[in-house]
Amino acid sequence: MINKTIFRQYDIRGVVNEDLTFENSKLIGYFLGLTIKEKIKTTPYIIVGYDVRTHSNMLFEALISGLNLADCKVLNIELVATGVNYFASYQEFIIDNQKIKPNASIMITGSHNAKKYNGFKITINNEPFFGDELLALYEKISKNQNIEIPLNLDFIKIDAKKLYIDFMVKQFSHLKNFQIPFIVDCGNGVANTVLCDILDKLNLNYKGLHLLPDGEFPNHHPDPTNEKNLEDIKALLKDECNLGFAYDGDADRIAVLTQKYNIKGDMLALLFSKTMKNPVIIGEVTYSQNIFDELNHEAKTIMNKTGYSNLRLKLKELNADLAAEVSGHIFFNDRYYGFDDAIYATFRVLELLYNNIDLDFELDKLPKVYTSENIEIEVEEKNKFLIIKKIEEKLSLIQRGFPIIKDILKIDGLRINFEYGWALVRASNTNAVIMTKYEATTYATAMSYKNAVDNLINEVINEINSTTN
Fold first, then answer.
1. Cα separation of 170 and 228, whole Å?
2. Is residue 199 classed as helix, strand or coil in its secondary structure?
3. Do 38 and 70 contact (CB within 8 A), yes or no?
4. pLDDT in tens, 237-252
5. pLDDT tops 80 at residue 399
6. Stretch (H or E) spanning 186
7. Contacts within 8 Å (CB) and 24+ apart, 95-101
8. C-alpha–C-alpha distance, residues 255 and 258, integer Å
9. What dihedral angle (degrees, nearest 10) is formed by the CA atoms of 214, 218, 222, 225?
10. Distance between CA 45 and CA 15 in Å, rounded?
11. Do 269 and 291 touch, CB atoms closer than 8 A?
12. Which of 52, 201, 208, 407 gives a 20 to 30 Å CA spacing to 347?
């Protein structure tokens, strides 16, 4: 029985050989292939690449067996970063003496998750395949699980990495011989399937950490949002080398570090905006208010739902210049294709320094606030959106002892604006948790908001539990 829980909001992902198996990956390939054919009304050419996880090749064989049975053409780009996978889907290739532009892409990756996880990130016609579309795919598979899918490893091999490297070297040729030193920590993920080739061709002054792709991730877990995973790179930052980059397992998320700052995605959006003329920038609900306020001096800024698929679609819808998620997904529509690519973002950061923008100096100018990390509250999956609804109902009434509310934004959950800061309460789209975050002019004020909102959340959870028990 295929497990519905692997069909998440933005991709398919689960524990390999438990939730995500060889047999159900064949089914995913077959029904996904049929879905793509139905959308494009012809034989699809589908880019398929995979990350370094030990089971990625097994899932590749299963997936393409299903795609082949659905009469799709598989364009195998092998071991790549997710950005290279997306990049390939925008290119033209000569196949059987014809110019072919791919119709879809599938990246086999567990992203930043532990090494036992893997999954599929999917685009069709260069748009994310996610949300209700993934649930519809699950419904088709769940009703047809007895189909026999023979092993069929037919594919057309494509060298997308060379195209990508050549593009990047040309795009950033002005950085050639730029000698400001920096560090890259690839975390034994797939970043260095292309990264160091580009750095070397541009003759840049870098030190590499954990460059070798290794699905056992022997040095640290490939999730740069966890401060523990940044200890190696932080230990090397010093006055002579005050810049570092770290990547997640499939290199679509980036961490940018100086001695002074772990520069989150909202801060990066602000820094990048300084090199754009009248930019339109897509932010999301977890941004610091300081960043929104500062961006609005020079840019048109739109607050959007969090989630990389949401941001990518909104960027395309508005033809904006840039979208960025605090977690490090950065989407450039300015001089690029509008997808999240941490390797491309690396060179845009280096370009800031090339243009004499001092990262620390620019961030020092921001008013000082305390901003918490995302805080997770585990709840039952079936209750998480109901909890948000009940909290909204309670906030519409005057709460004795509750901080005075200026207004509530309902773009993605509830962003509650107070006099000296804000609180965010939202249901995770990927896990059975309520996410909260707090910001205020002081730590004490932020904690007072947290205590008030935590009490409200607990009150709602207890009420729901009492009615269901």
1. 35
2. helix
3. no
4. 999 999 999 999 999 9
5. no
6. none
7. 95/45, 95/156, 100/45, 101/45
8. 10
9. -170
10. 28
11. yes
12. 52
